[in-house]
Write a structure and sequence with these properties.
18 strands, 21% helix, alpha+beta
Length: 275
Amino acid sequence: MEVLLHQIDAFADAPFSGNPAAVMPLLTWLPDELLQQLAEENNLAETAFYTSVLPPEAGAPPDNSPAFHLRWFTPVVEVDLCGHATLATAAQILDDMHPGADRVHFYTRSGWLRVDRDRDELVLDLPSVSSVEIDVHDEVPRALATALGVRPVRAFDGTDLVLVVTAEHEVREAHPNFSAFPAMHRAAILTAEGTDVDFVSRFFAPAQGIPEDPVTGSAHAQLTPLWAKELGRTTFVARQLSQRGGTLRCTLAGDRVRMSGRCRRYLDGVVRLPD
């Protein structure tokens, strides 16, 4: 049995930047155990699997654009939302399967998601994620700050735990000690107002098999509404300060966050599985 594999860098400003995702089209779903094994073998932050067969609970697609059922796996677990692998999957579909289309929809664990083509960029539409401010001296934020070696001035609780520091260089220079991370199933986001961009961040998810993610779309679904409240506007240029780095243009639109970026294809291949 052969399965196509495409490795695509999402939110990539240049070659060897952005966040690599594996994209694997399927005719029908393989067993979940095998999907997890494939994601572990690919050893990227996310492997995206998709089929053209929608599950009954999806209902009708939002419009007549191409529509697919999409799932995401880290090397250790299936996740509810992943931005960069969705962008990469849309890039592969719009380039290879539907070059005449400018939009693709995905049914996912987080409902229907949309990606639009805008000249040489793709625009990803995700549900916004709200945050509630918590005491920065609470046990988990305090332990996380110690593990990251930072002194946060504010902390927020949402899908992920957010620590805010005063300056960009504190985000850039943080040295995480993953063995000291507090026990939590979710991820941690370190962020600050930027110098050359509106805000910067880094994203850590060791419990999900991703010590540090290069560029994280789902994190910006939480950071965009947070910074919208802080800065009093809805449109931002954001930079994730991982070693590879990546730039996102983010807009808060009601209860959705739209983020745009470029994708660069790195390889196309074939995975051979036992019958």
